[in-house]
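Title: Comparing notes on inverse folding

I've been comparing how different people in this forum approach sequence design from structure. To keep things fair, I'm posting one structure and asking everyone to reply with a full sequence. Here's the target:
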């Protein structure tokens, strides 16, 4: 289960994530405001995504990189029992993260080539994806705040399990998930890059 709204986590005991509004959802974490993505955010969010992957050496054509979901935000995140949050600091977007039905986007090798399928009638698994924090503002707990907020949303939607994947190149992301009780399930090599699959039960 997600931690309570007023809980803190190791390394950031002085700051807590506070839920300000249920719908559309909004939280505060210190000076950071988390809110739902709007269409006007598209360019900034896409640039933040690309900067985050470039930081660890991931780029188009490597078999892991993909960004086609950013061009179907409503279908994949906002209209199908998902969520996409952005983190604002001093009026600018500095962080983001998404939650989507695990059956909407293909996994493994097929993921980099696009594809989208309507979800099944029953909610079961959700994917937590696109966790990004502006490099200059990392290690401030903003990623942890996003994980907690998205876990809350997954519980509210009624999902049974959360899944995610990252690469060996993204060790800080993997460490963050582990702090929240996620466990590794398997590894797969795609284009010479080791992809790590993790999950967390919600009930």
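Reply #1:
Here's my take.
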């Amino acid at each position: 289960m997600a931690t309570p709204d007023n809980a803190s986590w190791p390394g950031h005991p002085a700051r807590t994530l506070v839920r300000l509004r249920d719908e559309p959802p909004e939280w505060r974490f210190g000076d950071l405001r988390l809110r739902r993505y709007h269409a006007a955010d598209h360019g900034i969010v896409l640039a933040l995504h690309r900067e985050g992957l470039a930081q660890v050496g991931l780029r188009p054509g490597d078999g892991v990189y993909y960004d086609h979901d950013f061009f179907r935000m409503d279908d994949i995140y906002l209209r199908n029992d998902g969520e996409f949050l952005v983190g604002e600091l001093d009026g600018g977007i500095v962080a983001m993260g998404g939650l989507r039905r695990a059956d909407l986007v293909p996994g493994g090798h097929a993921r980099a080539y696009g594809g989208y399928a309507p979800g099944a009638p029953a909610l079961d698994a959700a994917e937590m994806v696109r966790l990004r924090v502006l490099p200059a503002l990392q290690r401030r707990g903003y990623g942890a705040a996003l994980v907690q907020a998205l876990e809350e949303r997954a519980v509210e939607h009624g999902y049974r399990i959360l899944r995610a994947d990252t690469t060996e190149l993204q060790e800080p992301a993997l460490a963050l998930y582990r702090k929240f009780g996620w466990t590794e399930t398997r590894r797969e090599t795609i284009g010479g890059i080791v992809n790590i699959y993790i999950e967390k039960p919600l009930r």
